[in-house]
Amino acid sequence: MNKFYNTNSFKLWSKLGQRAVFGLGMMEIIKKHKDLIVITADVSTSAGLDRFRKNFKDNYVDVGIAEQNMIGIAAGLASEGHRIITTTFSPFQTLRCSEQIKVMLGYMKIKVIMVGLASGLVLGPLGFTHCSIEDVALLRSIPNISIVCPADPTEVIKATEASINHNRSVYIRLTGSSNMRQIYNEDYDFKIGESITLKNGSDISIVSNGSIIAECLDAANFLEAKGISTEVINMHTIKPLDKKKLNEIFLNKKLIVSVEEHNVIGGLSSSIAEEMSELKNKPPLVKIGINDFYSSGGNYEYLKGVYKLKSGDISNKILKYYEQS
Amino acid sequence: MIEQRKNFDEFIKQVRINILKFSLAAGSDSAHIGGALSCADIMGVLYKKYIKIVESGSDKRNRFILSKGHACLALYSCLVELGLIKPEEIQTFEKNESRLLGHPVINKEIGIEFSTGSLGMGLSLGIGVALSFKREKKENNVYVLLGDGECNEGSIWESAMSAVNFNLDNLTCIIDNNGFQQTGTNEQIMKNSNIAEKWKSFNWDVHEIDGHNINEIDNALSIVSNKPKLIVAKTIKGKGLKIAEENNAWHHSMISKQQYEDGVKDLNE
Predict the structure, then answer these.
(1) pTM, entire model
(2) Which of A16, A143, A308, B207 is 20–30 Å from B15 (CA)?
(3) Percent of chain B with pLDDT over 70
(4) A-chain residues within 8 Å CB-CB of B155?
């Protein structure tokens, strides 16, 4: 497909953040995929879709604040051959309608793309009703659904386009705030299920995804300065996992570190642990994520601090572990 | 008219006999007998006249969604009568690798539009399908059958609200109002009084009928409305199998060979 963007777009997009760029990108994507229908649950503004709603009335359906009905309507439309993207805030896009997702997208294999807005901790000031640290764990247990967590707004666009061409339902997990780190300066190829090595290194592999990967890159650079060669892998697709890449690093790295803006139960770290569990010889896996508790609320930076997800926390933990072993 | 009535009666009688055959085939795995028999007349009229699944080809068929999926025996029994399911397949019911489980599994080849059985989902699916027909300017209609107990589910009311919002005059929803749910009457478990008033207040075109009166069913289904249509069909759980009528022990139960034979004999009389 012809690209509607170039590397100049990437800089602007990182200022806007993942949600706004999703909405902005849809204004262009719809021109190439004219039949797409975007269904929201009263969140057009939050999804950056206000202009889309106004300009593409025929491609926009609002079901009101009723997420279970949203998935049902999406599946009903998709079963008649329509291509559908649903979106609302991550907890409501996943847990609230989880059984509809199971039965319709999983069991019946009806293809719908779901975009979970503001997942992870970015809505911390609103409390944990609006944070989303359980979505990956829940959806990962449902067969026939792929899960993608883009690292930056550029990758949101690429993941959305890839999902449209993907043969099964996809959950796209949006994270981070506006003015987020621009991970990609150059254009690149994105394929669902194929991880991307953002930084090379020979001793340690940090495997992460979503906007938190910016913290991992800083941590890796810090470790590099200390003489520890650290790789950073963007495992943007949690399901299906890039097993080829993982098995490569299980063989040739001294330590694997998973970093996720999600509960350490059931998310990326669990996926990696499951993949390595049957290997006889394997490097240790240090799991960095949300350690299964709801903290007091607060802003994004505050919560990253509480859960020790900042670059300094990550590098400290790795250093401590690495020096002990 | 009399000819059509005879056709309905014969079709529905066979549907009820098929339901008993399936139930016998289930053996000790049991089957949802009561709620299948209560909607047999409604489904018989729907499949004989309204769904047009066989005669009009796949694209032009109207869509039927059995939201109360546990009444799958009524659906399978209609599909047997229409020749989409072979009578031999009745014996595979609920057996390993069967296409015919205790709740419908999507299989368009044999006329099963969606996998249902988790209650409260079918109307949303129907709204999606009806919206599609509107967008594509297709004449097809969508029929969804709900249970009265199923209306305990909150998701039903999400969809009830939205069908009107989207002006889906191509959507008909029927409630099999047999007055019972799994472990008791609606009155005992969750009061669901004034069903018709509830849906009227959501601005549906509501019709209350005797769900075992073929003419009333046919008339209600044939009404053309300018908004979503709801038919509250007052029914008798277990209708047609004397020992099961209004006896909730037959919600999900086994039928003995003797009970089966007596039942078939009664239906044939």
Answers:
(1) 0.97
(2) B207
(3) 99
(4) 68-69, 72, 100
